[in-house]
Request: fold
Amino acid sequence: MQSFTNAERAEVLTQALPYIKRYTGKIVVVKYGGNAMINEQLKQQVMEDIVLLWLIGVKVVLVHGGGPEISDLMKRLGKQAEFVDGLRVTDKETVDIVQMVLAGKINKTLVNLLEMKGGRALGISGMDGRLIEARIKDERLGYVGEVTHIHTRPILDLLEKGYIPVVSTLGCDRHGNAYNINGDTAAARIAGALQAQRLILMTDIAGILRDRDDPSSLIPEMSLEDAQLLIGSGVVSGGMIPKLECCIDAIHAGVKNAVIMDGRIPHSILMELLTDEGAGTWIKGEEA
Reply:
């Protein structure tokens, strides 16, 4: 294990000071999923990052999905997962399973981990306080929701009381129906409604690549215009298109900037927020 002198530790903290000043008191929305959620060591490190940011005064909102665990429970219950255009077909039985896994097991596990790391966290779903209002996105998909409105009061109340809100991506309508909401979309809409300083989407790749087969072709930063051009030219394709579009939409809604970040890197959130190096592709909005 590499050891550092006290002077070296002090130097690291001093170099982080400008970034700490930039984000203290500001809202940062983190969409958490993928490898960082499945790998236990990475999960512990993500929770440590979030608690550290909370301790220095950053208002972190953690938004999580849970696709692999939903699929695993469906399999154990003898129900076959079906996808259309990358979205899970969600009948009434499936939405009950989604609610059980997201708002129950995963949400409360993350809250417990944050508390064990020294933070104060409280878990809610998008159904609590009608946080995420939704409607049917596509009849073929069943209870997959399209977000119609974000009611920020439940999150703001928790932030004002000093909690880390942990939000599972369920939505509801005025008729009492529950909906499965895409995690990236939910995080982007929540970040926009909160006018967050930054939206972080954690992924299982290095970020946006000029050549998707070459990790060294990472694009470290881009403007909104660059982002649109990369989508139009086909450089950005497949599942990365909706992620980048979520970032673009969030910035248009008032988020200062967004990043599609490699969640496989230990302590990548701290690298992204508190160093020059970063850990993915930064989409530039209006810098505060």
Remarks:
- The chain has one domain: 24-284.
- Residues 24-284 form a domain with the Carbamate kinase fold (CATH 3.40.1160.10).
- The chain is about 45% helix and 20% strand.
- The first helix runs from residue 6 to 23.
